[in-house]
């Protein structure tokens, strides 16, 4: 039997699907969901839930002791677009929550940690195409600075204290079960909802803004596969590059138009354009493929098919 798992920030875009998948894999009672707010019905009905603030060390420790938690997935964070509006709140949440979980592992109260980083660790001086695992970073957003610092601390805790922390740099994630939480790639989810509702979409990024993206099923499979891998295979203890597909809003609109003839997209870039312009267009994820066997399954057209099928219900 798998030892108990705690997910912090379980009600968000990734946490919801991660919780449901871990519950079906390891048994509902072994996967404790937590967040500062309640989640959707599927999440709340499927197993144990605790209201928990990720910035409160004592409260997390209580839950860890009560359920004899062995692994923590820390999904609570403030995302890129929202973090530009509330820099200090973003920094406090993103860093303090990570220290809390890393320190629990350092104190041997838990034995394994998953913490997600992001393509936002890269910046305007990073090579844009096939961005390598190790390269110039220099992030220019509050969110990116917090993720890069987080990566450095993860590696530090692994080297100095032997903490078994694992991480991937998620690209923009596309899913239908929950809405995204304030990121720069949110357009790639909103567009499907609007295409079905109105047959048109006003995009907040320019037509040719190419970004790395991934369908949620691939992201969840990558996460669980990394956590299941034997420790000695995990050579990167900052965070692994992870690639799925790359496309522009224009290409996404063309993919949708194959199913919804006459679908129209217009472009009104806002402050998120500058964030997107500072990020890579495509990612080289060779170390993740080589070291723990990562391989994506969904391309843009398959994603479009899945999104439209599931959103239609
Ligand atoms: N979604 C993406 O495209 C994407 C891409 C790259 C990285 N990530 C990273 O993955 C992680 C999860 O992202 P997401 O898209 O699910 O985010 P989200 O915003 O959808 O969910 C975050 C959850 O954290 C919760 N939360 C906020 N403050 C909290 C606190 N103090 N205590 C406990 N919970 C709190 C929120 O209520 C929310 O349910 C984050 O670290 C994010 O940076 C996401």
Automatic annotation (TrEMBL):
Pfam families: Epimerase (PF01370). Residues 5-242 form the NAD-dependent epimerase/dehydratase domain. Coiled coil: none annotated. It comes from the Bacteria. Belongs to the NAD(P)-dependent epimerase/dehydratase family. This is NAD-dependent epimerase/dehydratase family protein.
């Amino acid at each position: 039997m798998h030892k108990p798992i705690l997910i912090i920030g379980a009600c968000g875009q990734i946490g919801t699907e991660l919780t449901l998948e871990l519950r079906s894999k390891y048994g509902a009672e072994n996967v404790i969901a937590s967040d500062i707010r309640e989640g959707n019905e599927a999440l709340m009905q499927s197993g144990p839930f605790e209201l928990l603030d990720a910035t409160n060390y004592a409260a997390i420790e209580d839950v860890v002791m009560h359920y004899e938690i062995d692994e923590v997935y820390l999904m609570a964070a403030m995302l890129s677009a929202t973090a530009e509006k509330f820099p200090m709140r973003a920094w406090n949440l993103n860093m303090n929550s990570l220290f809390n979980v890393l320190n629990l592992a350092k104190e041997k109260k838990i034995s394994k940690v998953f913490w997600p980083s992001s393509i936002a660790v890269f910046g305007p001086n990073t090579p844009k195409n096939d961005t390598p695992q190790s390269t110039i970073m220099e992030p220019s957003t509050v969110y990116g600075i917090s993720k890069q610092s987080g990566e450095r601390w993860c590696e530090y805790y692994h080297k100095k204290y032997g903490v078994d922390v694992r991480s991937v740099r998620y690209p923009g994630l596309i899913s239908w079960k929950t809405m995204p939480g304030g990121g720069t790639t949110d357009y790639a989810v909103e567009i499907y909802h609007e295409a079905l509702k109105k047959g048109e979409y006003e995009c907040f990024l320019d037509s040719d803004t190419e970004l790395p993206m991934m369908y949620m099923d691939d992201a969840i499979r990558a996460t669980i596969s990394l956590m299941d891998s034997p420790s000695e295979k995990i050579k990167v203890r900052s965070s692994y590059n992870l690639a799925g597909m790359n496309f522009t809003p224009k290409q996404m609109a063309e993919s949708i138009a194959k199913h919804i003839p006459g679908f129209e997209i217009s472009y009104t870039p806002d402050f998120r354009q500058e964030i997107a312009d500072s990020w890579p267009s495509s990612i080289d994820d060779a170390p993740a493929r080589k070291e723990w066997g990562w391989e994506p399954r969904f391309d843009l057209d398959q994603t479009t098919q899945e999104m439209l099928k599931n959103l239609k219900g």
